[in-house]
Amino acid sequence: MRGRIFWLVAFSIAMGFLEASVVIYLRDLYYPDGFAFPLTFMSERNTVVELLREAATIIMLAGIGVLAGRTPNQRFAFFLASFAVWDIFYYVFLKLFLHWPGSLLAWDILFLIPVPWIGPVIDPIVVSVTMLLLAACLVYRDGPTRAGRLSIREWALLITGSVVVVGSWTWEYLRYGFSFSGTTPPINTFVPQTYLWPVFWIGEGILLLGIYLYWKRAKPDFPPL
């Protein structure tokens, strides 16, 4: 277990550096004076490549979780942990090489599929810590029976919390897009103005409630792995 966790963390940190290096190159090309909204227009080909790169990143993180885990709990936990470590170190490397962000409240593009996710940098870091907490709980409560699996209620809370959090990141762009009825809103004219902090923290609270209920319920009568 220790060896698998070590290589999982090493892989995730390396992926964080790889992701940061791509962003460093992109910012040199498109934002020589520093990253800021509105976004610089990219060619259709480069936009497609960027979307596929993000999708490939998720597949790679899921793959390492499946390969490292030996049980359903471990596979899901290792995917969460790999995702969280990757995301945290992505920002660590951006700070080291670009001295960005200047603040944890700086706006950032968090994801692009299916619409742009936009929010302050602190949000994905908070969510990453939450993912690490859930991953630790899943591994600690893992065992030979289904007692340590997430229940339907716990899954419902985790999914609901995730949807609410993502909603806090996408609402501003979706609202902007409503004014372009029938056409695709141009991302290169969008400048975020407000952020739904209450919605984010409600979603985070739902996630933590799901983790707490799982931890409280899943108490197997055998030593943890």
End-to-end span in angstroms?
8 Å
In the sheet with the most strands, the strands line up as: 1-2
Average pLDDT: 90
Strand segment count: 2
What portion of residues belong to β-strands? under 5%
Count of the domains:
1
Alpha-carbon Rg, integer: 19 Å
What letter string, H or E per element, gives the SSE order? HHHEEHHH
Tell the overall outline. Answer: globular
Q: Sketch the major β-sheet.
A: 2 strands, antiparallel
Global structural class: mainly alpha
Number of helices: 6
Quaternary organization: single chain
Low-confidence stretches: none
Helix content: 55-70%
What does this structure look like?
The structure is a single chain. This protein is mainly α and 225 residues long. It is built from 6 helices and 2 strands, in the order αααββααα. It has a two-stranded antiparallel sheet with strand order 1-2. A hairpin with a 5-residue loop joins strand 1 and strand 2 (117-120). Helix 3 runs antiparallel to helix 4 (122-140) and helix 5 packs antiparallel against helix 6. The relative contact order is 0.13. The mean pLDDT is 90.
Topology of this protein?
Elements lengths: L1 H29 L13 H25 L3 H27 L8 E5 L5 E4 L1 H19 L11 H27 L18 H21 L8
Helix pairs in contact: 1-2, 1-3, 2-3, 3-4, 4-6, 5-6
Task: Describe this protein with a few key phrases.
mainly alpha, 225 residues, 6 helices, 2 strands
